[in-house]
Design goal:
Helices cover 33% and strands 37% of the residues. It is of the alpha+beta class. Helix 1 (15-29) runs antiparallel to helix 3.
Length: 97
């Protein structure tokens, strides 16, 4: 399994806009054939910090996600809402298989 943790820092004045756009991306992403999970986590102490937990069956499925209309729309919509560029860190998911 190919997992990416995407660290996102949002400008505080755009929290609701970011959450709304990310919810739409989440809803479409979990329908993708190679998607295993797509969780959106908000830091309990700092509301402007998020982690997107994206798990796909393969690196190819994760790459295909980045070509979808919903991802491209999300990427362009949230870029100006971020306090700094998002950072994706790739992992190999061992368990569950």
């Amino acid at each position: 399994m190919h997992v990416t943790l995407v660290h996102v820092y949002v400008k505080p004045e755009y929290l609701n806009d970011f959450i709304e756009a990310t919810h739409a991306n989440h809803a479409a992403s979990i329908q993708e054939p190679g998607n295993c999970r797509f969780d959106v986590l908000q830091d309990a102490q700092e509301a402007n910090k998020f982690i997107l937990y994206e798990a796909y069956v393969s690196a190819e499925a994760a790459a295909a996600h980045k070509q979808t209309a919903h991802y491209l729309t999300w990427r362009d919509k949230v870029a100006p809402l971020m306090a700094k560029p998002r950072e994706g860190v790739s992992y190999i998911g061992l368990f569950p298989k």
